[in-house]
Design a protein that fits this description.
Number of domains: 1
Shape: globular
Radius of gyration: 12 Å
Structural class: alpha+beta
Strand content: 35-45%
Helix content: 25-40%
Order of helices and strands: EHEEE
Oligomer: single chain
Number of strands: 4
Number of helices: 1
């Protein structure tokens, strides 16, 4: 099953906001991932305060992984 690309960009200036927004992004992506059952969630730290949350076929379903650039 093919699923559409889902990407959530997150930009924050405080740790408190980061935690809130990452948790919200993971919750949103979990809903989409559950429908397909084939993708996990990849959180990428692009630079301090800038993150991207995406569904990834490189991450096993049911898992969340973090990548730091």
């Amino acid at each position: 099953m093919s699923i559409p690309s889902h990407r959530i960009d997150i930009q924050v200036s405080s740790r408190h906001l980061l935690d809130e927004r990452l948790e919200a992004a993971v919750r949103d992506l979990q809903e989409v991932a559950m429908a397909a059952g084939t993708h996990g969630i990849l959180l990428t730290r692009n630079k301090p305060g800038h993150y991207t949350a995406t569904l990834s076929d490189q991450v096993p379903f049911g898992m969340t992984r973090e990548l730091i650039h």
